[in-house]
Amino acid sequence: MPKNNRLIAEYFPHYVGISKTKFILEHNWGNDGYAFWFKLLEILRISDGHYYDCSMAADMQYLTAYTGVDEKKALDILNFLSQREKIDMELWEKRKIIWCQSFVNNLEALYSTRGMEIPKRPECPKEQPRRNARKRRTKSQSTEEEPERGNAQSDEQPTEVPVNRGQKGGKQQPEKKKYGENVSLTDAEYRKLVEKYGEETTQKLIEKLDNAKGAKGYKYKSDFRAILSWVVNAVIGQDQKGVTSNGRTKRPEEFRSSEGFRPSEGFTPTE
Predict the structure, then answer these.
(1) CA 26, CA 20: separation in Å to the nearest integer?
(2) Which of the given ranges, 35-49, 53-67, 153-167, has the highest pLDDT on average?
(3) 91 pLDDT exceeds 90?
(4) Residue 12 has what pLDDT?
(5) What is the DSSP secondary-structure string of 144-165?
(6) Whole-number mean pLDDT of the chain?
(7) Is the pLDDT of residue 74 over 90?
């Protein structure tokens, strides 16, 4: 049993069979991709509770120093692992916490010998509902004009017009249009995507984000920023082997999942 009852492990299984994740890591990032993945697992092994918090700059610097890659490459790989569901997408996107459920599951035998259950996934705090602002009354309003409390039919209006969050000086933000059931973009944002990636690829980016938000309930302040932060990498960044006529990357046939395929959990030789 570790000292001070910390939830750490002395070892972890390292399977060496065929793995699509390892194959793509090596294809996209060479030996850096392979080394980053298993050095990350080493960090999770000695981290209390087997999760690692990258929200602080110093902790992110330690991760990059230990794995031997720069921060941009580390984030690219972590975003890829998130899309492959090798690390928890919600914890990574919302809190920059690295949690690998299959890694912890593989330690079940170790914790069984300790007479303990395996560590649980860290909770992602729920968003707190915003409190309604109290309506202010002007000095000119007399007590005689004040409606009775609880009167749902009151004609009283607030004396100040609320300004949407994120607006500066009360300026109205550009109107967003629906480009999918769950994706909203301004005309300028949509044009930027088309100019950079082309019409066909832009539609794929929107479809990817639309499906992710619809299936898992993700919410973003800006769908445009979400596309740039991880959707682009998920759609066209996994494979640099093929290139389209307009200069965009194209996934080769061998990386296309068959219909109904879902990546297996855990690090087994048949992964």
Answers:
(1) 10
(2) 53-67
(3) yes
(4) 67
(5) TTPPPTT-TT-----SS----T
(6) 75
(7) yes
Q: Which residue's structure tokens are 């690692």?
A: 52
Which tokens is 269 given? 């030789």
228: left (phi over 0), alpha (psi -120 to 50) or beta: alpha
pLDDT over 60 at 84, yes or no:
yes
Tens-digit pLDDT profile for residues 191-227: 888 888 888 898 898 988 888 888 888 888 898 898 8
Any idea what DSSP says for residue 220? Answer: -
Q: How many CA atoms within 13 Å lie on the side-chain side of 43?
A: 22
Domain with CATH 1.10.10 in the chain: 3-113
Q: What is the full DSSP assignment across 228-246?
A: IIIIHHHHHSS--SEE-TT
Which residue in 45, 51, 55 sits closest to 99, CA to CA?
Answer: 51
Q: Is the pLDDT of residue 62 over 70?
A: yes
DSSP notation for 185-214: EEHHHHHHHHHHH-HHHHHHHHHHHHHHHH
Q: What string of DSSP letters covers 92-141? A: HHHH-EEE-HHHHHTTHHHHHHTT-PPPPPPP-PPPPPPPPPPPP--TT-
The encoded tokens of residue 46 equal 């000695």
Tokens 């949690």 label which residue? 99
How crowded is residue 107: how many other Cβ atoms within 10 Å of its Cβ?
20
Q: Could you say which architecture CATH assigns to the domain 3-113?
A: Orthogonal Bundle (1.10)
pLDDT at 261: 43
Dihedral sign (CA 148, 152, 154, 158): positive
